[in-house]
Amino acid sequence: MNYTKPDLTVDIVLLTLIEGRLHVALMRRDKAPEEGKWALVGGYIHADEDTDSTAAALRTLRVKLDFVPSHLEQVCTEANATRDPRGWSASVVHLALHSPEVLAGLVASKGMQLFDVEDDGAHLPENIAFDHQKLIRLAVERLRAKAGYSTIVAHMLPETFTLPELQGVYESVLGKALNPANFRRKILERAALEVVGTLHGTGRPAQTYRLGHALDYFDRQLA
Amino acid sequence: MNYTKPDLTVDIVLLTLIEGRLHVALMRRDKAPEEGKWALVGGYIHADEDTDSTAAALRTLRVKLDFVPSHLEQVCTEANATRDPRGWSASVVHLALHSPEVLAGLVASKGMQLFDVEDDGAHLPENIAFDHQKLIRLAVERLRAKAGYSTIVAHMLPETFTLPELQGVYESVLGKALNPANFRRKILERAALEVVGTLHGTGRPAQTYRLGHALDYFDRQLA
DNA sequence: ACAATAGTGTCTGTTAGACAGTATTCA
DNA sequence: TGAATACTGTCTAACAGACACTATTGT
After folding, report:
1. How far apart are CA B156 and CA B98, in angstroms?
2. CA A120 to chain centre
């Protein structure tokens, strides 16, 4: 009754929005296999220190990037015989989101890079490790699907934001323009947004808001 | 760099609908740990014969029940230090659906039992193994969520069915009565249903249909 | 005053829910 | 002919999308 145990890892698809385009955080692998290729932030689950798989993902982000994401959720598990040349392996894939300002800081200090994932990954580097291009696609699909009926995309903004800014991230992720009047009406009906203050810009100042809950689900599609 | 590898298993929450109530298939464990308790159909992933985790789930169903489900999908992965007394373990949880007629046959021939999962599991047996009560809840929640915007529930009917029958399974899973006229209009708009024939019952005969695709997703909520 | 951006009011077409009514079978 | 079940037509209220309008700032 002793089977060969597969490897068990976590991989984190850390995404943000830069100039209206989704970007993913990748790091260069510094050891074999796939040395030198670009890979998701990830690593082995440590049975002795991780209480569960999400804790393993948080530890990995802390150790490799010294960073706690605004949002983290499990996407799926990719487990098969061919994804890793070393043999049968399983990866619990997580989606993480944060604001571009903070991630840009990590690029400078931690050697991580941000790559544009739009146009079906056409702008990603050629040499992506393992099945990580597929894992990126799965996480991006999850984000796009969830954008339409939740406040998930707000986690790619700083903690406080204006409604036009929020509309912008919805438009980018959903890939279509939204009518400002209708967006305001619907988002204020559906999401628990708390008024924070006022932001002065180049025209009329905007109200700033923050999320009342980490994640709100809508009973109807936003757009 | 050699960590203790956690155990990697699959567990299948096999559900069907009996007299309007969701039921789950459980089997009595015949060995330690948790011997004698009721457990989901599941087992270790076999790195030497399973190409991926879904193949492992299908093999497990074939070996233990000699059965191929009408629908099978991954739900999530439950992975932590405390779910199995033997130590850190990970289970890739799957949701499987089939018609009650076929599952009733397996009860007779394979020692499996079907338990009512309604009322938050109040009618489940006391002695459920490991964290399987939680896994059942996760799969049932997934099914209920997906029922509102897909044809997933049709997999708990035989291959051909009438619209009143289909309405019945939607009503049971969604937990509310639906207006027949509106149900017909919306399901025929949204789902790819193929006309098969005519079924004679006690009143006016009903058209029979089958699913045009394994799973249709709707752009709007059904109810 | 005007450019720029934020935010409101309101009209219209579409969709969802309610419900009355028709259709087709068997006893 | 009536009970039983399947199915259709149509009215109304709610909602989504479009768009013209007002509001508040800086220059």
Report:
1. 5
2. 16
Q: Which residues of chain B have pLDDT under 50?
A: 1
pLDDT tens-place string over residues B59-112: 999 999 999 999 999 999 999 999 999 999 999 999 999 999 999 999 989 889
C-alpha to C-alpha distance for B63 and B54, rounded to whole angstroms: 14
Q: What is the chain B residue with the closest CA to A46? A: B3
Q: Please check whether residue B88 is in contact with residue B8, taking contact to mean a CB–CB distance below 8 angstroms.
A: no
**Residue A25: which H helix or E strand, with range?**
strand A21-28
B201, B163 Cβ separation under 8 angstroms: no
Q: What's the rounded Cα separation, in Å, for the pair B32 and B204? A: 55
Mind telling me how many Å the CA of A171 is from chain B's nearest CA? 18
Angle between helices B132-147 and B163-174 (to 10 degrees): 130
Output the pLDDT for position B123: 98
Q: Which residues of A touch B74 (CB under 8 A)?
A: 76-77
Range list of β-strands (E), A36-118: 38-44, 71-80, 89-97, 113-116
pLDDT digits (tens, 9 = 90+) for A162-212: 999 999 999 999 999 999 999 999 999 999 999 999 999 999 999 999 999
Indicate if CB(A105) is under 7 A from strand C. Answer: no
Six-digit token pair at A117? Answer: 């994932």
Q: CB B88 to CB A221 under 8 A?
A: no
Contacts of B46 in chain A (CB under 8 A): 3
Quick check: A181 CB within 7 A of strand C? yes
Q: Which of A102, A99, A136 is nearest to A119 (CA)?
A: A136
Please choose, from the candidates B10, B11, B7, B50, the residue with its C-alpha nearest in 3D space to the C-alpha of residue B128: B11
Compute the average pLDDT of residues A140-158.
98
> Of the candidates B32, B138, B36, B128, which has an alpha carbon nearest to the alpha carbon of residue B77?
B138
CA of A176 to C1' of D15 (A): 20
**Residue nearest C27 (alpha carbon to C1'):** B202
How many other C-beta atoms can be found within 10 angstroms of the C-beta atom of residue B35? 10
Q: Which residue is closest to D9 in terms of CA–C1' distance?
A: B181
Residue B11's DSSP bridge partners are B42, B93
- Write b or e for each residue in B39-73: b if 16 or more Cβ atoms lie within 10 A of its Cβ, otherwise e: bbbbbbbebeebebbbbbbbbbbeebbebebbbbb
Listed residue (B155, B123, B121) closest to B140, CA to CA: B121
Work out the angle at residue B147's Cα, subtended by the Cα atoms of residues B64 and A166, and round it to the nearest 5 degrees: 125
The answer to whether A206 CB is within 7 Å of strand C is yes
